[in-house]
Amino acid sequence: LQGSNSFITKPIDLVVSNPPYIPSKSIRTLQREVGFEPRMALDGGADGLKFYHAIADLWVPLLNRNGRVAVEIGAGQENDVAAIFRKAGLYGIEKLPDMSNIYRVITGTA
Hints:
- The chain is an alpha+beta fold.
- About 20% of the residues lie in helices and about 25% in strands.
- The protein has helices at about 50-60, 80-85, and strands at about 10-15, 65-70, 90-95, 105-110.
- Helix 1 links the parallel strand 1 (about 10-15) and strand 2 (about 65-70).
- The longest helix has 10 residues, at about 50-60.
């Protein structure tokens, strides 16, 4: 989130991200194995949605017409992330489940 996307000089076709999505207060309750990850790779801010707002604000405006966004999400975040992307102007929002039928990916088109 530091800096900006000002180094991009032309529209882009695709944004793919696995951003940090765990709410800050939940970090300490994670499985022990996850504790080896740097906090910055896990901490998605107070509600876990900080980086989805950043993607919507900084990257969605740079997409070509019909450009796509695909992001990994935390369990239970599908409706919030879909709403953030819809508000940013994306359409055709899709919620894709993993093999346990938990929504883990959101996609959208500019």
